[in-house]
């Protein structure tokens, strides 16, 4: 029976799906540090995490039984994807499941900051009645600048426009503008145009520190800033200075460079205590609906990989969408993408009298993935020959 280790309070559906598929499931509530993770992964085939658990190359190297990692979130920068691929470990994430939840909290933040609800709320709780329209605005007619026009950015664009906002966006890749949204040619052009600036970029290393004092200074005086993407992309000390000076009228931040690993741990940030600033504990996608959808999506992908060999939507392996064939024996072979591999597989099977019923090949950069359905059990000699090839990364028999 394969074993799955699920960390960080994943939705119960993830456990149910894997247990129904025949997995022995172990759950832990918090994240683990690297030494704890190495110990916990002994004999484990599937690891399920969210954003707090780091899975670097040395952890992967110390987990020879590991076959798949499920990131029950959007980001995968906490996992060494290249090292995982080189060891034949498939990684899956949930690129769409919490999109709506993130968009809705962005809309809520924009309205709350533009109306200065945080300031009014704090004063009312302190017993101060301060009815005033000063600094409070409607979002209708204001311009939203979206940096990163992907799944979240595009849906936010549509909803913001429905609220009467004008939308501009900037993305380093070519993107189709939805509705009346307008693409800005440069980041500076967006910053000089937008009343509200919101970041929705991914976790690639090149985005580290992309938004600092220089970019904040280019923002319009009195504008609003949101970061619901990655904590390491923003210089929060520079943002603090801009808020205290009044250049930035308010901010909402959901992600931080260093975040507590467990619920109840102390949280420190230079943004604490600032006026008209909303701080949330990385909960942009944390709604019950989103977590349920993520639990189902990622658990199903991991289950399918181990049972059928399907790598559809894997973030680090060549993608093949496969169904179960109960009348066939399946050889799933991950290898380096070099000439002659397919011929070697077929010749080896033919030499041992194994008839091929179906075969699919996909490549992705330096990796190749061949899945072969055969009519009879695969002899041990075939496994030994293919697994011993210099280009071999991982061979699995799926019956």
From TrEMBL:
InterPro entries: ACT-like_dom_sf, ACT_dom, AHAS_small-like_ACT, D-2-hydroxyacid_DH, D-isomer_2_OHA_DH_cat_dom, D-isomer_DH_CS, D-isomer_DH_CS1, D-isomer_DH_NAD-bd. Catalyzes the reversible oxidation of 3-phospho-D-glycerate to 3-phosphonooxypyruvate, the first step of the phosphorylated L-serine biosynthesis pathway. Also catalyzes the reversible oxidation of 2-hydroxyglutarate to 2-oxoglutarate. The gene is serA. The lineage of its organism: Bacteria, Bacillati, Actinomycetota, Actinomycetes, Micrococcales. Residues 330-399 form the ACT domain. It catalyses: (R)-2-hydroxyglutarate + NAD(+) = 2-oxoglutarate + NADH + H(+); (2R)-3-phosphoglycerate + NAD(+) = 3-phosphooxypyruvate + NADH + H(+). Keywords: Amino-acid biosynthesis, NAD, Oxidoreductase, Serine biosynthesis. Pathway: Amino-acid biosynthesis; L-serine biosynthesis; L-serine from 3-phospho-D-glycerate: step 1/3. Pfam families: 2-Hacid_dh (PF00389), 2-Hacid_dh_C (PF02826), ACT_AHAS_ss (PF22629). Transmembrane segments: none annotated. PANTHER family: D-ISOMER SPECIFIC 2-HYDROXYACID DEHYDROGENASE FAMILY PROTEIN (AFU_ORTHOLOGUE AFUA_6G10090) (PTHR42789:SF1). Belongs to the D-isomer specific 2-hydroxyacid dehydrogenase family. It comes from the Bacteria. This is D-3-phosphoglycerate dehydrogenase. GO terms for molecular function: phosphoglycerate dehydrogenase activity. Its EC number is 1.1.1.399, 1.1.1.95.
């Amino acid at each position: 029976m394969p074993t799955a280790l699920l960390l960080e309070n994943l939705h119960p559906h993830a456990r149910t799906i894997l247990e129904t598929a025949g997995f022995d499931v172990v759950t832990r509530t918090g994240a683990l540090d690297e030494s704890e993770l190495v110990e916990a992964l002994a004999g484990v085939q599937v690891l399920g995490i969210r954003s707090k658990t780091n899975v670097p190359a040395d952890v992967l190297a110390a987990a020879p039984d590991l076959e798949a990692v499920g990131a029950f979130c959007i980001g995968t920068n906490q996992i060494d994807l290249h090292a995982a691929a080189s060891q034949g470990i498939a990684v899956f994430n949930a690129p769409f499941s919490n999109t709506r939840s993130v968009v809705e909290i962005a809309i809520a933040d924009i309205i709350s900051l533009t109306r200065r609800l945080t300031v009014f709320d704090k004063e009312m709780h302190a017993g101060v009645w301060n009815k005033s329209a000063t600094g409070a605005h409607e979002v209708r007619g204001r311009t939203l600048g979206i940096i990163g026009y992907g799944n979240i950015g595009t849906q936010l664009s549509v909803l913001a426009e429905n609220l009467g906002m004008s939308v501009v966006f900037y993305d380093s890749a070519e993107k189709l503008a939805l509705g009346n949204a307008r693409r800005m040619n440069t980041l500076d052009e967006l910053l000089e145009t937008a009343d509200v600036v919101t970041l929705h970029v991914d976790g690639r290393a090149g985005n580290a520190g992309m938004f600092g004092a220089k970019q904040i200074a280019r923002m319009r005086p009195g504008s609003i800033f949101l970061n619901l993407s990655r904590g390491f992309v923003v210089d929060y000390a520079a943002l603090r200075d801009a808020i205290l000076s009044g250049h930035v009228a308010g901010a909402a931040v959901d992600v931080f460079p260093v975040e507590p690993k467990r619920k109840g741990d102390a949280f420190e940030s230079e943004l604490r205590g600032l006026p008209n600033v909303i701080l949330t504990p990385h909960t942009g996608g944390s709604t019950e609906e989103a977590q349920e959808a993520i639990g189902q999506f990622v658990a199903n992908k991991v289950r399918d990989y181990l049972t059928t060999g399907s790598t559809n939507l894997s973030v680090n392996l060549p993608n093949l969408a496969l169904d179960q064939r109960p009348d066939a024996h399946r050889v799933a072979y991950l290898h380096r993408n070099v000439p002659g591999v397919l011929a070697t597989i077929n010749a080896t099977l033919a030499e041992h009298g194994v008839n091929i019923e179906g075969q699919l090949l996909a490549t992705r950069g330096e990796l190749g993935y061949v899945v072969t359905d055969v009519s009879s059990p695969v002899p041990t000699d075939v496994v030994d020959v293919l697994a011993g090839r210099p280009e071999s990364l991982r061979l699995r028999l799926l019956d």
